[in-house]
Amino acid sequence: MDARHGPGMEERTVSGVSVQVHEDNRVIANNGVSVLVDDDASGLVSQGASGRGVVVRGAVPRWPALVRRSMRSRRMEPLASTTRQMRGVALAEARPSTTTAGLALGVDVESGCPIFHDPFTLYGNDGFSSPNIVTFGDLGSGKSVSAKTWVLRNLMVGRRVVIVDKKLQALGDGTRAGEYSTLARTLGYTPITLKVGGGGTRINILDPLIAGESIDGVAGQQLLLETVASAAVGRSLNERERKALRVARESATRVAERQGRVAHVGDVTQFLLEPVEQSMPGISSADVLAEWGRDVAFALERMVTEELAGLIDGPTSEGVNVSGALTVFDISSLPDEGAAVGIMMSVLNTWLHAMIARSRETVPTLFVVDEAWHVTEGDFARIARKNAKLARGLGISNMTILQHPGDISPDSPAISMIKESQTAFVFRQDKADDAVAVCELFGWDVGEWAPLLQNLGTGICVVKIGGGRPLVCSWMVSDFELSVATTDAAMKSRATLTDAFHSLNDDEKEASHGQ
Questions:
Q1: Environment class of 227 (CB within 10 Å of its CB; exposed 0-12, middle 13-18, buried 19+)
Q2: What is the DSSP-derived secondary structure letter of residue 112?
Q3: Integer Cα distance of 143 and 136 in angstroms
Q4: How far, in whole angstroms, is CA 268 from its chain's centroid?
Q5: Angle at 406 between CA 403 and CA 411, to 5 degrees
Q6: For the residues of 228-257, what is the DSSP string, one character each?
Q7: Mean pLDDT of 23-51
Q8: Which segments of 33-73 does DSSP mark as H helices, in order?
Q9: Looking at residues 360-373, what average pLDDT do you find?
Q10: What integer best gives the mean pLDDT of the chain?
Q11: pLDDT score recorded for residue 504
């Protein structure tokens, strides 16, 4: 590089290009390009192929003094903006799966965003109109744990929760009870136990506190009575049998009122066999009513004294109410065979709806029915469907828990109730037919969702919220929730038949000493 000096300026030749370097570090090349040079610059300007000046190491284009000073300082000033505006800078940012309104469920597997949902909170927004929930899931899929965490999270925000608990579970102390018993006792509540043969809670289906005649459309005494009678005879009642049953109930109620008590099913049976002589259009005598109601009377008598002994054959037990935050009806001791489970689930469903209908203040209530396949057929499903229609007006979210859609016959009224539920938690469905049935039930694309449902990991479910695209959710559980929600005590037991034999002998010895 050649150089010549002059007043306040030095001429240099860089790569055959003549440039003038002034005292203020301003450099002018022979092509008229003006640049600003740092003090340590060794090469200034080189000629590009296009003939334009190219900035080289240590050189930047010459700008006005104010801009030049900021460039030389190389400082970045903060820029005020908003979250919405800055989203345009991060174009790859995922859209949140849900709003933050509601209860936390877990994390969206696809986006990593948290998922929040709550039928009570979302009700009335974006066309969301049903508070009812349905849960499907195979054994070991995480269905039961999710249900218990949903219960706990509703309790945390001050809601009432009522549970009908059918699943028998081995507890840590070696006893057996409904699987929600641990949760209830941990929170300081005692489950209400229903047992055949006595020793548990009794609920009188003719008690006005259970249903009354008809309260805001809730299934009343007559419908409950017909449900029990239908289960007893093993078929639907004909019109003559219904008439005889209605007249017998009215007679039993009047006589019981004069005696200062509440009528029960036993009273109805008596008046079915021995009707009161009264004048009624189309009925010539009490003998006609007796003939119409004889089969129903014998069937009711058998069922009340055998399958339902100690359950509905007397006054309602004290303490059956929903004044506490959590009420658990433990019906795990009722036999799976027969009509006892379906009847008691229908009775409790109706009782809850009637009780809330009478309340002066509406408290949002979660009503959970586990192993709900017991109430998906016949009159039981008709009662559940009738009461589910009232959920919005009473502030009730009915949560129905099943294993597979195959648990429900296609013509069951429960199908319509499930389709109307705008919230669904679907855990793994091992069988292809069950996965396809879920997709068809909710209108999901079978090719996309059925294979996914078959391969969901434990604790991962597909969440349906309204009519939106389903979300794949990894259900999050706290340590405390997990401690009261697990159902593995029986499978992890290390007891042997020898232990069981010794325990049985000890119980017999205690019993003999007590005598």
A1: buried
A2: -
A3: 7
A4: 39
A5: 130
A6: HHHHHHTS---HHHHHHHHHHHHHHHHHHH
A7: 44
A8: 65-73
A9: 84
A10: 76
A11: 45
